[in-house]
Amino acid sequence: MLTPFSGKIPSHIPKELVLSYPLHLGVTTYDNPYETLIPAIHKMPPAFWAPDADTGIAPAWVFRRAKDINRIFADTEHFSSKSAPFSQLIGESWDMLPLEADPPNHRHYRMLLLPFLTPAKISQMDARLRGHARYYAQRFRDNGGCDFVSEFAARFPVAVFLELFGLPIEEIEQFLQWENDLFHEPDINKIGASVREIKSYIMAEVNDRKAAPKDDLISYLTHGKVNNRAATDEEIWGLCFTLYAGGLDTVATSLGWYFRHLATHPKDQEILRSSPEIIPRATEEFLRRYSVTTLSRKCIKPIKIGEASLEPGDKVILPTPLGSNDPEEYEDPYKFDLYRKSRHMAFGSGIHSCVGFHLARREIHIAFEEILAIIPNFTIAQSSRILTGMGSVISQKNLPLVW
After folding, report:
1. Nearest to 175 by CA among 146, 148, 130, 205
2. Which of the 8 DSSP states describes residue 302?
3. 131 with 169: CB under 8 angstroms?
4. Lowest mean pLDDT: which of 126-130, 149-153, 180-184, 301-305?
5. Which residues are within 8 A (CB) of 51 and not within 5 positions of it... i.e. 6 or more apart?
6. Which helix (H) or strand (E) holds 121?
7. Distance between CA 173 and CA 93 in Å, rounded?
8. pTM of the entire structure?
């Protein structure tokens, strides 16, 4: 992990800050990275330049301290959110909106989304969301075990997405495949192919909604206004793709870690079973301890942060798993405490904090409530090995639970 890079290093990068980054795309481990890799990275310099940090093939600065990550999230003068990696893969230039939009345009896209993602709006969907969670839990209730990742964690958020977008639940297998290819496939060509297929599918639905709108999010965006004008097709697609990307994989990945924790910490599992009223508060500690996403920025104006001197064009990696477990920010950060008054970076921070955080929290609350009500005390199957992949999300490939 600490082997210095021997290639060509830009002149403004100190050689002692050139290190390998162990959380990049393509790295896998059978260890629990929250117990091994993340504590190890917190022994590295506060900021370092890694030749493999950006998707495992390109260099970037990595910041591990919460205060530096929050500072960069908030600094739109020196850092841009524009990166458009998915559009570049297919030779296009659209942005994921509002994620990759800078001020002042960012506000217009965020304001378009907010009314559809308020707590009041989400509460109207509560019974349907709970029905999806209950359906998948009941499918394996009598089996004595399941692979939680593939049988629940991956499926429940996709069902919610299809519900939001007014798409048929029968499409779930296709969307599961696209999700896997987008976020867990190291082959760039396969990722690009999935982007094209998803865009073709969603934009066909957009064209249908233009002629015949429904009560769904696609129709809402298709007929929405951006700064008092109609949204363009490129903007509609950018908004749809962000909700697709953000709403499926991060929730699925997070649920996998939460239920792995409960399977290996029976006292915590019993507390949530006996006192379900603390689930909303406990969720914040799950979000902190198991933050999963890594975001990026591009430096657009020279700036010095600690020992790091950044120049325009430098890529910056901002891992929320590191920020949320920063020993300089949190007391005993690697200890999980259901009663901790938790702060975290799971939803990012600043103007780009996750616009769908109300929905994400509600999905997590419902998953806890329904699984713990339907499935008896569970543990991890003996002799099982759980493979974890790194990248923009830290995701488990499997989670064999038994009861």
Report:
1. 205
2. -
3. no
4. 180-184
5. 5, 7, 18, 20, 58, 59
6. helix 119-123
7. 29
8. 0.95
